[in-house]
Every structure is written in structure tokens, then in C-alpha cells.
Amino acid sequence: MKKYVVCLASVFISAQLFAVDSIRFTEKLTDKLVRSGDPDTGFVYEPVTTISGTFNASITFPGFKDVTREELINSKFSFTVGGVDFSATGDERDPKSPSNSAIFYQTIGDRRVGTITFSRNGDVLTISAQSSDLDGDSFAAEGHAGDTNPPSGQIQAHIQIGELFQTTRNVYYKGTSSVTHKTVGSGDDAQEFNLNSVTLSGETDTALPTVSITMPKANQRWSNEVFIVRGKAADNFGIQSVSLWVNEVDLGAAQFANGNWEKEISLAPGTNIIKAQSIDLEGNHSITGQVKMIYVLTDNLDLLVDAGGKVTGVSNQQLLELGKRYKATATASNTFLFAGWEGDITSTNPVLSFLMATNLSLHAKFIPNPFLPLMGVYNGLFFPGNSSAVRSEITTDSVTSSNAGFFTGKLSDRGICDGKVLIGGATLPFSRVQFSLTGSAHFTIVRPRPIPDLIIDLQLDFQNGTKTLVGAIQSSDNSFTAQLLADLAVGNATFLAKHTFVIPGGAVEDTNAPAGHGAGTIGVNNVGTLTLAGSLADGTPISQSTSLSSSGDWPLYVSLQGGRGLLLGWANFTTNPQPYHVSGSHIRWIKAPANTAADKFYRAGFNQEKMLRGARYIAPPLQTNILGWSNGVALIDGGNLPATISNPVTVANNKVSILSNSNTVVVTLTPATGLVAGSFKHANFGATPRTLKGVVIQLPAEKSFIGGWFLGTDQSGYLFLRRDPEIP
User: Fold this and answer.
1) Is pLDDT above 70 for 4?
2) Most buried by CB count within 10 Å: which residue of 56, 313, 503, 512?
């Protein structure tokens, strides 16, 4: 096997600093066949290696520019390559060397085989050498080669410049090799040779190696204290080692092989800064590679989920990162509601955002949906008064059209209510009011300034099964507080029927309020919806559409006079066999003072408690008397009359005949509806007849009667037909 030997350097200098910037060389070793011997005795063939090559070095030597030319050319220069000492002295120099240069010749015996040139440019010294056709046998380049693998490796070059300095530097080389087979002679005298040709090239290593960290990735999160850091390192000649630091602590060298490195490390909780640096064979250090990773501490989440729902986003005993934010979403099943989060974190929001902490416990509560049996439409009234008697008592002095009114709201199966409040002629809607799981709700209806806002508190009955909604409505200026009661419209046919009703008037002697009987009809359909149509005793038309409660409670509310007046109160329907099937004992009629010339009746206004009385009305078969009696009396009074008009009457085939009729009284019945119309004349009103309006109230045992009203000059009077001599 041939020896491939070349050289170069790191530098030693006495008392001065210098640096070998670069060394490069090429060298070619070629086997040749040499024939030698005596022609008489025969020739012998043997391979001989010849060497040729170039050598270049650049050296920075501070202060070298001050060396005199004489010192430069009289110094001894030498270097060794492959065991061959190339040297030159001043005696061997070329006298024609240019300024700041010295050219020396390399000779072997009397044969010149190379040239060495030393050139100075300031403090930089350049050495160039070339040689050719050196006999390898003369320089211990022994043997001949059969190895075809390209050689590579490391050699050293030694440089000496007189007594100024000397240095040995590593030089890294790679080479190519080729083998040529050659046969000499023929037959039995044939000799076989493998002649090798090797070309070497190398240089000092001044390029920095590279290093990279492939694991962890940037900002990677890790939940274990131990981690294996991995990466790659590369150099043009070779890596000596890879060093690792974690949080500025030196962890020493990593394991390195085939361009890959790795090392097991221990992490500190939180952010860890990992650094790596490679060092090549010459000791050059790479640029430091750096990456951040986060060692996250974890713990198991203790999550309890009640029956009736589920939680998504996290799960029980899931390993979660401490300090990291997570989201848990609670979803109730069809007949349940989410009742809130309990444990270490409390919230009513089904979507919970939380930071994971040690031993964190969460409890998702679900309860049977309390709104399911109570969902639907609620209708009711509000007015100042005693909340314990809110269905019956309406205090005369305190109720006005601006502090009392009507409430309606539709409750969903999730406890969300949309509805409206009617007060003072205004309709004030509200929406998306959420009831709590205790059945309470609080909200505010904003009204245009300077009208105060309405602060509303509501409470559902979850305990007693009354299917009612109670609460209070308060003005934001504290001018009033009204008690509220509303009933669930159940939607049944319990009170399905047509009804007629009257609102009896006051005493004839009282000229400040009507003596007439307001009258009209009420219809209740098979889902409990009520429709009211009629008129008050002063001729004011009234109407309403609402729903009844399961026990027949009716919240009567009619806004009058553009919101300045009202008709309000609780009435009740019954199926019991009694004279009246619908009645209200505390109906409040508020008439505001007149504000137009057309309003001629009771211009000062009034606030009175009234009764409402009504009964089912069944249209009679043909030839059947709807009143149930034939002989009676017609009474007309009040309404600016000086005295009562009283006439005997007979009823046959639902026709009313007035006897002794000096006032031309006419009364006409409509059997299909129970409505009554008529007229009469009186001297107080001149030739113009007065119109009569009323209804038939069908009562048992021949107690049915007709009640109604007429308008006088500025007062209201009544029409009353009854069986004589009974007084209802």
C-alpha cells in the first residue's frame, strides 16, 4: 500500500503574533514502470512512484513589513511535504528576484526539480512552491498500489522562516485513485502490474461547520421532564464534536454519528432555551443554533357531569397542561337544563373558559327542565295595591291610567320570555328576558324621556303548580309600584260559550257618573281565547282579545281616551249552575277629564269601582221566548230625565210590546245574539228620539232581564226590562 503524505500548519512564533490564513496544495503520485539491469543478463521491470505538486501558503505576520530585504533574502526558508524537505538559502536564491520577493530553486543533486517563491505585501507573506517528477524511491514513497479507493485524510505542513517563526498546520485532503493494468512480456516471461495514479488536493480548514436542531421544534410544548434533543451537524472536512447548553448550563458533548447528533436532557418547568454548537476537526466553532421549548406541567381534570347532559371540549381525568386555557361546553338533553358550573369555578354560562390548575375540580349540573310545564302565554294585570288580594282589590285612590295596565308574555321551554306591557295607551315590547333556574327575572323597559323607565321583577311558581307569574313593576323615579299577576293560558274548552254582560251604572241622583248599564258580548272559544265587544254607559266602545287561565280568570283591560282612561279589573268564569257565569266585583273605570268639545259627557271625569255581570247566552229555538217570561216592566231613568219612565210590557215570540206608551218606547230583540236596540221620546230632548242599547242576560227561573243605556244631554241613563214585580 502506498503512503500518501502531505503537510501543513498551525504556527508558532517567538515573541510575535502571526496567523496562517490559508494553505492549499495538490500532489500527484504516479506509478511508472522502470526497466533496469544488464542487457547480457536480462532486464528487470519495477514500478516507481513519481511525485509532482504545488504548495501555497498565505501568512499574516504583524510587523513583517518592517523586515529588511536583506533579512528577507538572507533567511533560510524551508517546508516539508511527504517527508521531502524543500529548503532554500540565500545562496540558492535567484538574483533576479523582484523587490519584496525571493525566488529559490529546489534541487536534488545537480537536478532542479522545483521553485519556491516568498513574496511580501505589507505584513502578508505568500509562499508558493511547485515541484515535478520527483523519484518516489528517493523519498521513501515505497511500493506500488492496487487500492482503488480514493484516499482522504489529514496531513501536516511545517513552515519555517529563518529564526522568525515556525509552525505546523493541519491540512485536510481528498483524492482520487485509478489503477491501470499492464502486462510486460509474453508467454512464460509475461509480468503483470497494477499501476496506480493518485491525485491529492487539500487545504487548511477555515470554513465554519454548521449545526441545526431538528427536535424540538420551535416553541414545542412538552409534558415530560426528560427530552431527547436531536439535530444535524456538517463540515467540509469533518465534525469533532457537538456541544449542548440548556438555559446557559453546559451539558457537554452530544452523541454524534453520520451527520446526526442527539442528547437526553432534563427540562425546567416553563420556557427552556436550548443551544447547540458544532466544532470541526480544526477546532472551528459553528454559529450557535438555538430553539425554545416549553416544559408544561400537567394534571388530571376532575370533571363531574350530572345525568341529563354532556360536556364537550374536556373529559374527566384528562391530562391537561397547567396554566393553559381550555374551553368546556355543557349541553343539556331534551328534558333537562344546564344549572351551572360548581366546584373550583362557578359560572352560569354553559361555555366555560378556564385556566388549568393543580387538582382542579369542575361539576356540570343539570336539572329537569322546570320551564316545560310552565311554557306558554301569560296574560295578566298590574296596578298598585295589596299583592295578597291582587285579583280582587283595586284601590280607588291609587290606581291611574299611568300606573296600571296589562301584561302579556310568551315563555319558551328554555325560560326565555318575549312579550309586551300596555300602559297609558302605549305598547312597550320586551324580548329575550331570561328567567333564572329559581324562576326569577329582572329587566328594565326604557321609555322616552321624560317618562320614567319601568323596572320589572317577575317570579314563576315552580312549587305550587298554580301556573301563575307574579311580580312588580316600578317606575324608575319611584313614583309608583304596581303589583303584577298573570296566568298561563292553558288552551282548553272548559268555558267554551257565548256570553252577554252588563256593567251596572250608579245612582240616578249621582250626576258625576253614569247611571246607564254598559253592555256587550263575550265569546270564549275551544282554546280559551276570549273576545270582548260592547260599549260603556257613556257610549264608549270597548273590545279586547285575551286568554283565560285554567280556573277561568280573565284580566280585563281596555285603554280608553288614547291612554288617559282605562277599564281594568279581574273577572272570573265559572261552570257552576248559578245566576252569573262571569262576574267581576272590582272593575275600575277611569274616565279622564274631557279635552275636546265633542266630549259632552262627564267632562270632569271620574274614577269608580264597577261590577261586571254576565251569563251564557243560548239562542232560543224558533217560537221560544229568550227571556223566559211574558209580562214585565220597562224602566228608563237617569240621562237628564226628570222622572222614571215606566211602562208595562209583554213579550211574545221575542217581540216586546210596550203598553201605555206615551213616550213612544220601542225595544227590539235579536235572538241570535242577545243584543237589544230601541228608542224613546221625551219632551226634555225635543222631537229627537233617544237611542237605546242593551243585551239580554239569561238567568234561570224566569229571572232573565234586559239591561242597557241611553245618552241624554250630558248624562247617561239606563234601560231595564224585568219580570214584574221582581227586582233583580
Assistant:
1) no
2) 503
Helix (H, G, I), strand (E, B) or coil at 124: strand
Instruction: Judge contact between 650 and 631, C-beta under 8 A.
Output: yes
Q: Residue 666's beta-bridge partner residues?
A: 679
Dihedral of CA atoms 397, 402, 405, 407 in degrees, nearest 10, equals -140
Rounded Cα gap, residues 535 and 519, in angstroms: 6
Range 394-401 average pLDDT? 81
- List Cα–Cα distances, 201 to 27, 58, 467, 677, in angstroms: 6, 17, 102, 132
Give counts: helices (H), strands (E), the chain: 1, 52
The whole-number pLDDT of residue 120 equals: 83
Cell 427530552 locates to 227
What values do phi and psi take at 73, rounded to 5? -85, -15
Of the candidates 338, 17, 337, 362, the one whose C-alpha atom is nearest the C-alpha of residue 167 is: 17
Task: Give every CB contact of residue 569 below 8 A, 6+ residues apart in sequence.
Answer: 381, 394, 556, 584, 586, 587, 588, 610, 612
Spatial separation of the C-alpha atoms in residues 87 and 79, rounded to whole Å: 6
Q: How far apart are CA 332 and CA 309, in angstroms?
A: 4
Output the nine-digit C-alpha cell for 247. 438555559
Cβ–Cβ under 8 Å, residues 322 and 356? yes
Count Cβ neighbours within 10 Å for each residue of 284-297 and write b for 16 or more, e otherwise.
bebeebebebbbbe
Which residues have CB under 8 Å from 533's CB, separation 6+?
520, 521, 542, 543
Of 461, 469, 418, nearest to 443 by C-alpha is 418
Q: Is the peptide bond before 448 cis (omega within 30 degrees of 0)?
A: no
Query: What is the Cβ-side half-sphere exposure of residue 435, based on CA atoms within 13 angstroms?
Result: 29
Q: Are 568 and 402 in contact (CB under 8 A)?
A: no
Q: Which cell numbers hold the place of 504? A: 251596572
> With contact defined as beta carbons under 8 Å apart, do 365 and 352 qualify?
no
Per the DSSP assignment, residues forming a β-bridge with 175 are 200
Residue 139 in this model has a pLDDT that exceeds 60: no
- Rg (the chain; Cα; Å): 60
DSSP per-residue codes, 369-407? -TTGGG-EEEEEEEESS-GGGTTT---TTT--TTT-EEE
Using CA atoms, how far apart are residues 491 and 547, in angstroms rounded to an integer? 8
Are 250 and 263 in contact by the 8 Å Cβ rule? The answer is: no
Nearest to 242 by CA among 225, 258, 256: 256
The number of angstroms, rounded, from the C-alpha of 703 to the middle of its chain's C-alpha atoms is 71
Q: 409 forms bridges with which residues in the sheet? A: 378, 419
Cell of 458: 317577575
Indicate the pLDDT class of residue 577, thresholds 50, 70 and 90: confident
C-alpha 541: how far from its chain's center?
55
Grouping H, G, I as helix, E, B as strand and the rest as coil, residue 638 is strand
State yes or no: pLDDT of 284 exceeds 70. Answer: yes
Question: Are 167 and 12 contacting, i.e. CB atoms less than 8 angstroms apart?
Answer: yes
Q: Rounded CA gap, 405 and 421, in Å?
A: 7
